[in-house]
Amino acid sequence: MKAGMENAVVRSISTGLSQKGVRNHNERLLLSLLQRHGHMPGSDLAKLSGLSPPTVSAILKRLESDGLLTRGEPVRGRVGKPSVPMMLSPDGVLSLGLKIGRRSAALLLIDITGAVRKQVQLNYAFPVARDVFAFLETGIADITATLSTEQVSRICGIGVAAPFEMWNWHDLKGRDANDFVSWKNLSIADEIAKFSKLPVSLVNDATAACQAEHVFGRGKEFRDYAYFFIGAFVGGGIVLNNSVYEGRQGNAGALGSLRSVSPLGESKQLVDMTSIHLLEERLKEVDLDPSIVWDTPQDWSSISRYVDPWLGQTAQELAKASLSTCSVIDFEAILIDGAFPPEIRDELVERVRRYIANQDTRGLIPPKIESGSIGGNARALGAASGPIFSQFLLNTNAGLALA
C-alpha cells in the first residue's frame, strides 16, 4: 500500500490529538499502529498518526519505560542518524481468553502480538456451567503457576467468548437439559469474580473469532468484510472501516440466523444447514463416533466419504448467504474459517467460489471469497484480545476513538 493511501486509511480509523488531557488516546493510537503495521521508527509513526514528532517521541519513551515497547536494531544507510524502529514488547501485556463451545472449552494465555503462550482444553458432551467454571479456575491456577511474578502482573484480564442465548441451542432432555438451561439465569462475570479479581469482558463467540482474524490474521488485508466461522454451529461477524462492529447489543453479524430453505422446502436458518453439528449427525447415523471431528490434532481423512456431501451443502449455503450479506453492505470480501482442518477450509472456500460464479448476482458486486487463517483457536484468541483492546488499543466502532 502506498504511503499516502496508508495515511488516509489510518486517519479514517482515528487521528491523533496533541491537546493536553488525551494522552491515553494517543498511547492507544501508537500501540494500535504498531500492532497493525509492525515495527517502525518514531518518524513514521508521527506521519501515520498526525501527531508531532516531539509528542510521539515522548509517548514512545513512556511506553518503553512501562515495558510495552522495545527497540529494534538501528537501521542505517540513510542521511543522518540511524533510525531505531519501535515494536510491541511480547512481555508487555498478557491476557487470558476462554471459549465456551458446544463440544469443548478452551483457555488461552496470549501476549499483545497474538502469540499463544499457554493453552488448556476441556472436552464434554455439552457445557455444564459448574464444570466450565471449575475448569477455568483450575486452568488459571495451572497457567499462572508457570509464570514469574512479573508476568502474572502483566495479565490484564479475562475475555470470555460464548454463544448468545446458549441455553436455546440444544436437543437434550431430562436432567441434561436442566443442567444446560442453567446458563440462562447465570452471570458469567459474577461467577468468575468468585475466584479471580481480573476484569472480565464478554463477547459473542463468532464475533470473537472475527476479532481474532481481524487483529491477528488476514483481516488487515481488507477494510470491510463479512466473516463466517463454522463450528458446532455457524456464526459470523462483520468488519466496517477497519474495525469489528459488534452492534448496540453485541449481536451484530449474527449470520447464522440468515434465512434458508431445506431440500423439503421448510423454512430454516443458515445454522440449520451448514454447521458441523450436521456432520456429527451423519456420522451417528452410520454408527461412527462423532467425536472424531473434534480430535486434536484434527484429521478428517478417515471420514472423507461423509465429509464430502457435507462440504457440498455447506458451500452452497454459504454462497447464497454471502450474496445475501453483500446485498445489505457492499463488502469487499467474505472470509471463511472454522473448527476443521486447514485442507477442509481451503476446499470449502474453493467450492463457495465456484457456486457464487453460477449464482444470479444482478445488482451486486460479487465479493472476494477468502480463507481465514486462525482456525479452531479463533474464538478463544478473539476472547483474549478483548481485554487488550479495551485497555491498550483503539477500535473506532467500540467508541474508543472518542475517549
Oligomer: single chain
Q: What order do the SSEs take from the amino end to the carboxyl end, as H and E? A: HHHHEEEEEHHEHHEHEEEEEHHHEHEH
Profile the largest sheet. Answer: 5 strands, mixed
Number of E-type strands: 14
Strand line-up across the major sheet: 5-4-3-6-7
Per DSSP, the total helix count is 14
Strand content: 15-25%
**Helix content class:** 40-55%
How far the N terminus sits from the C terminus, by CA atoms, comes to: 29 Å
Q: Report the C-alpha radius of gyration, rounded.
A: 22 Å
Class by alpha and beta content: alpha/beta
Give the uncertain stretches in residue-range form: 1-23, 397-403
Report mean pLDDT, rounded to a whole number: 87
Overall 3D shape? globular
